[in-house]
Every structure is written in structure tokens, then in C-alpha cells.
Inverse folding.
């Protein structure tokens, strides 16, 4: 309709009408583009908020992971202490034979849980990291994940754990190992009287196995390192979480994982 009027105005050389019709067309195109841009911006904003909400939940999970790692590292340190005392006085394990047997099996178990940046990794894979604003928040998120991925020192320290397991192999019998592993770190291991009676004998053989004993200081050092890394990562996570909640104070708890 507009184009027919536009053509008619041209034939009549009605320049006022031509300009009016042309202005209407241009205005219509402009409004259409603006509406399209607004819709895209709204979609991008909602997508960014969704990712921010999921990253926030990932960081909250990270904090729990760091706390678990710290608590487990404390337990491993205590177990290494039990083993060191057994080396000095094997007979002393009679005071707490179950504790000694559990330490023999668990002291070299892994304590560090690598962080899984699920939401952020997905966001990076989409190529839409730039949706996160302000830029300072985007940079802070990137820096956080770059830092917590640097756990190579912990991985290298696991050499001591593997070496201790190898050197101490055979000190516990299959039944004792099975009892500990079935408990999965619980405190209610179902030890038999026979198992407990064997504890001093195990301690004596352990004290006489220098290739196993020599790794105890390294196991201790490893857990200290785990606690230091967890403390550093916990501090970074809290700072980032506070920044997210400040920049997206209206996010609430409504954003769910897809």
C-alpha cells in the first residue's frame, strides 16, 4: 500500500508526499530493527543471568568441596601421626588397634577433589563469554577458574601416596583391607577380635619396613599442601561469590540448572 502511494506521488511529482512516504518506510525499518535488537538483547541478558546463576551454584559447590578436602586432609594428618607413633612403639597400637589398622589403609587415600567448572566450561564452549557483564566480573570468573586448575603440585605429590601403598603392600591381609574399604572412611568398621589382635604384629612389620616408613613425612607434607591449596581456593571462591551477588543482587534463587 505504501509503495503504491509512493509510486503515485513520484508520478505526480508530489515531493512532499514522496518524502512523507519515504520517512514512513525508513521509520518502520528502524523500529523493526530496534525491536529485533531489543529481543536479542533480552535473550542474551536472560542467557547471561542463567549462566551466572549456574556459575554461582558451582562456586557454592566448590566451597563445600574445599571444606570436605580440608576435613579429610586433617584426618589423613592424624592418621600419619598414628603411623609415626606405631613406628616408634609398635606395642602402643594396642591402645587403639582399630585406629592403627584404618590408618595403615587410609593414610595414602586421595583427599583433593579437582573442581568441575561445568557452567563456565559450557559458556566458554558456546563462545558467548562476552555476555557476562560487567567486564570486571567476567575477568574475575576467568581468573578464578584459571587459578583453581593449577593443582599440578598436588598431583605430583601423589607420587608419595603411590610409593607408600606399594611399599606397604602385604602388611594388611585381604580381610583387613576389605573391612576398611567397605567402610569408605566411616568410623564403624566391623573389626573382628582376630583382626584387632593382629594389629601389633602389623605395626612391628611396618616399623621394620623402611621403604614404607620413609614416605610418611611426604604423606604429611602432601596433606599440608592440600590444606594450603584448599584455603587459597576457598578465599578466592568467597570473593568471587560476593562479587557475583553484588553485581547480580536481584538474581535470587530462581535460576536453575538446565
Amino acid at each position: 500500500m505504501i509503495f503504491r502511494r509512493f509510486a503515485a506521488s513520484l508520478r505526480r511529482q508530489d515531493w512532499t508526499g514522496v518524502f512523507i512516504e519515504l520517512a514512513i518506510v525508513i521509520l518502520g525499518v528502524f523500529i523493526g530493527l530496534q525491536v529485533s535488537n531489543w529481543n536479542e538483547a533480552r535473550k542474551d541478558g536472560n542467557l547471561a543471568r542463567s549462566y551466572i546463576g549456574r556459575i554461582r551454584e558451582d562456586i557454592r559447590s566448590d566451597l563445600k568441596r574445599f571444606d570436605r578436602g580440608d576435613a579429610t586432609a586433617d584426618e589423613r594428618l592424624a592418621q600419619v601421626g598414628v603411623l609415626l607413633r606405631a613406628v616408634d612403639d609398635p606395642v602402643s597400637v594396642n591402645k587403639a588397634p582399630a585406629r592403627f589398622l584404618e590408618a595403615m589403609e587410609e593414610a595414602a587415600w586421595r583427599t583433593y577433589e579437582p573442581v568441575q567448572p561445568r557452567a563456565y566450561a559450557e559458556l566458554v564452549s558456546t563462545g558467548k563469554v562476552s555476555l557476562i557483564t560487567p567486564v570486571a566480573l567476567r575477568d574475575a570468573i576467568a581468573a578464578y577458574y584459571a587459578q583453581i586448575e593449577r593443582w599440578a603440585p598436588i598431583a605430583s605429590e601423589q607420587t608419595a601416596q603411590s610409593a607408600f601403598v606399594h611399599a606397604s603392600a602385604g602388611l594388611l591381609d585381604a580381610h583387613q583391607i576389605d573391612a576398611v574399604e567397605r567402610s569408605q572412611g566411616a568410623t564403624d568398621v566391623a573389626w573382628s577380635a582376630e583382626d584387632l589382635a593382629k594389629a601389633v604384629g602389623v605395626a612391628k612389620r611396618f616399623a621394620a619396613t623402611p621403604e614404607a616408613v620413609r614416605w610418611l613425612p611426604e604423606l604429611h607434607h602432601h596433606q599440608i599442601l592440600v590444606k594450603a591449596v584448599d584455603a587459597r581456593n576457598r578465599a578466592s571462591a568467597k570473593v568471587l561469590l560476593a562479587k557475583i551477588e553484588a553485581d547480580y543482587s536481584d538474581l535470587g534463587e530462581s535460576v536453575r540448572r538446565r
